[in-house]
Amino acid sequence: MSIFNNQRTSQDIMIPTNVAAYVTGLNQPLEIKPSLYPSPSDNEILICNHAVAINWLIEVRSSVARSNPGDRLYTVVRGSNASLVPDSLSYEQAAVVPLGIVTTASGMFQKDFLALDLPEPERRKSNGQTSLIWGGSTSLGCNAIQMAMAAGYEVVTRASEKKFELVRSLGATTVLHNHSTGIVAELIDALKEKKSVGALAITFASAEPCVEVISMADEGKFVAAALPLPELKDTEAEAKMIWG
């Protein structure tokens, strides 16, 4: 994670010195040390990190047409993929948007993944269909629950007991205990007699149990995974990594 240590205004963009947060060992605190200044190549932009994942633009190559120094952007390398931060959001508030919303929305709504109906600003009436979201209290999971509910889907998820009220407040209809030894069987039971539209596997090593659960559903036997998938054998369900 790079951190540029200059101050900026929209009228005065300075070329910064670059430092980075280094992981020096297991369970050790991050150490801030000098790092190389990464100049952008053609079609790339360089963004100064202000809050992790949400940052402002400091240098643009001539081939990048739609960005300007001083813009508040999500850190990416391709200029065409940068996202402006609305003035109504702080850097910290906007930090959830790129990873939390874009990754989740891709897995839920793109036609080569779950291909769900799109959400509406005013929550759609329930369509009687159910999505399994494995990891409901994570950043991606919190976004997924809200988008699924806004699109008219019921949500079955799992979370630690201390996060039950959080995921319920976001709209989850069924919440099961994260640390239950029989979680797969419990989720299979929770989806019985429901019209499944598939699952979103968010947390580490969640794709395989998600596939096990979804393979027992009558329909919607597809898992969109946020992390790399293991080799899956002897299953009726299909699984695919988002952008994988």
TrEMBL record:
Q: Which GO terms describe its molecular function?
A: nucleotide binding; oxidoreductase activity, acting on NAD(P)H
Record keywords: NADP, Nucleotide-binding, Oxidoreductase
PANTHER family per the record? Answer: HYPOTHETICAL OXIDOREDUCTASE (EUROFUNG), ZINC-TYPE ALCOHOL DEHYDROGENASE-LIKE PROTEIN C2E1P3.01
Q: Which family does it belong to?
A: Belongs to the zinc-containing alcohol dehydrogenase family.
Recorded protein name is Enoyl reductase (ER) domain-containing protein
Q: Which organism is it from?
A: Aspergillus leporis
